[in-house]
Amino acid sequence: MRGILGRRTLMRSLAGVLVATLTFGVAACGDDDPKGSDAAEAGPNGVDDGSELTLWTRAPLEKQAKLLVDAYNASHKNQVKLTVVPNDDYVAKVGAAAGSSGLPDLFAADIVYVPNWVNQGLFQDISKNIDGLSFKDSINKGHLSAGTVDGKAHVLPFVLDLSMLFWNKQLFKEAGLDPEKAPATLDEYAAAAKKVQALKKDGVYGTAAGLNCGGCLVFTWFPSIWASGGEVLSADGKSSELASDTAQKVYGTWNDLWKSGAVLPSSSGETGPTWTAAFTEGKVGLMFYPATLLSSTPFDAGVAGIPGPSGGASTFVGGDGIGVSKDSKKAAQAWNFLSWMMSEDAQVEVLAKNKDVVSRSDLAGNKYAATDPRLVTINEVAGKGDTPVAMNFQQAFNAPNSPWLTLVRNQVLEGKSGELQKDNQEITAVLGQ
Amino acid sequence: MRRGRQALLGWLYATPTAVFVVALFAIPLLLVIKMSVSKWPLLTGDQGFNAPANFEKAVDHRFFTDSVVFTLKYTVLATVLLLVLGLGLALLVQESSRWNNLLRASFLIPSALGLASASLLFYVFYSPYASPLKPLMDSWGFTFLGSPNAALFSTTFLIVWRYAGFYMVLMLVGLQGIPADVFEAARSDGATRWQTFWRVTMPLLRPTLALTTVLCVTGSLLAFEQFYILTKGGPDNSTITVVQLIYSVAFQGQNDLGVAAAISVIVLVALVVINALQLRAFRSEES
């Protein structure tokens, strides 16, 4: 009896081991598909043959990505499957996938990371396809050049996100300011914030900023420096110029605003997730705010370019670039999505219709822009904006413990102006690594 | 013959566990050790052997010392609070009665919540923007995560809330394992409550204390979720734990798995040493 039981268990265990081995074996062999055709061989519009394409993007651009993907799926045989990843986890997810050759067919990347990722070979070269587009010269330059390495373009603009000066017209009226006129200099901006603060309305503050969020500060404060003709980085992206006189004036204005109590108090700890929330709820007078949120701002807001200490207007041409991943076996089908995305149909009937910025300058004066003068303003300022290019941008600026964050917090919250040179050198050290 | 078959059968019984140990522990461990001696950027993968460059970079990292000091500080604070509170709660609810059952359950409920969910709950609770305590914060001019010390204590409070019930249960099991006649003997010898606690309960509770200390110290040294969600290492880089440093080196900017693996190996060695010391300390006093 015992022997029989033993033998049966033995057989069962053996079968179990066998099944396990087979499963591992099959999983290991799954990657051996033959490589599909090159994007460039498939003609100017790529291939629309009912393939399933995968696309990854990060959460802040979910709305625009969904609109684009839905419109594409409705009009094409190819079907795009969209995956939206939380902002903070995006780099880790892409990194892990890149290491194990598991990247989706298409993926978007924060434009400031694009130079590094292209350099690491995460995107396929699509310069031949882009050269074939008749409107190539009107595609947003900042995004295109961020994805160009050795003359080869790898990335197209997916969604443009511009930082703009937004003001709450109702609060401006109550504070005795002209609700139709934007502050023309950074000093006027500060004065307007203090006036809104002086209303002493419960829970209402003059202005707000993500003072513990490196990415937010890059996005909203670099334009102030550019607007007054300053630079933030050297041309090669290896050293920081954030201790210049113009930069110091920007920090000084914000330090004064912070001390005067006109800045939303939770700004000092704001790491990013809710940095725009107070303005959207109508509790902040004016702030530097992402233009992608124009359609979801429920009240009457004014929009202008971001002014510098001596006036002017500029913007950070942010948002995400998109390209075909190195691991995609369906480059021709993926290009079909990209070429449609750049077409007038997608740019005007999807993006512009949702009050988003188009990524082609020849479509800036489209019919939807004409109905909302704020869109015309945004499209105009887009031409004056800039996109900084540096290999180690993330570590120097966006990371939660970046030296840029230390610099801003020392200057604005602590008022330690003596630390400026040292903090700026720390940024240069990281950029140069 | 029969013996040989039994041995084979024994091996087969052990196989499922062995497969899991090899697949989920041994292989990842070997991989981490290999990473720690290789140039291994996140986005491009293995670029070949480069020891000991990763370890040098790890120790020279501008937050390495800060994060070690902060992790130790947090570990001492969390361990002392959790063990004292766990024991205190266990003594409070030791006798079984109707009310004590209710108390036990309510102390234990936070343990049913995942640490990340609990952290998110407290993120809102502490937020100067969305918190129900906002009026209080406004009138005191104080925020829970605004200064280095406030952030440390607020996070420790979350951990105490989350884990006190768990340590209470462990202590309760230990307390109930002490035979009742020992207490009776102490009482008939005329010991006061205080004397009974120090001379009878505490010595007999030693194995439980050893277990809880090891658990708590190891858990606190590996703290990550609570700080990742609540403070992100801030304000002003004052609350970076070692594991957070590993994460940020790997995924937030530097994107260097080699250096991250080197820190992981250092932490692993430190943990083995610390746990060996703890176990020895508890054992030597026993014998």
Describe the structure.
The complex is a heterodimer of chains A (433) and B (287). With 433 residues, chain A is of the alpha+beta class. Chain A is globular. Chain A has 2 domains: 40-161 and 318-376, Periplasmic binding protein-like II (D-Maltodextrin-Binding Protein, domain 2, 3-Layer(aba) Sandwich), CATH 3.40.190.10; 162-316 and 387-431, 3-Layer(aba) Sandwich (D-Maltodextrin-Binding Protein, domain 2), CATH 3.40.190.10. Chain A has helices spanning 2-29, 62-75, 90-99, 114-119, 127-131, 141-146, 169-174, 186-197, 214-227, 245-260, 277-280, 331-342, 344-351, 367-371, 373-384, 393-398, 403-413, 420-431, and strands at 52-58, 79-85, 106-110, 148-149, 152-153, 156-168, 286-290, 301-304, 306-308, 311-314, 317-324. In chain A, 43% of the residues lie in helices and 14% in strands. Chain A has 18 helices and 11 strands. Chain B is mostly helical and 287 residues long. Chain B contains 13 helices and no strands. Chain B has helices at 2-36, 53-60, 64-92, 98-108, 115-126, 134-140, 148-176, 180-188, 193-204, 206-221, 225-230, 242-251, 257-286. Chain B is globular. The A-B interface holds A 6, 9-10, 13-14, 16-17, 20, 91-92, 94-96, 98-99, 116-117, 120-122, 212, 264-266, 268-269, 271, 274, 277-278, 392, 394-396, 398-402, 406, 409 and B 5, 8-9, 12-13, 15-16, 19, 41-45, 63, 127-130, 138, 143, 145-146, 232-237, 240, 248, 250-255, 257.
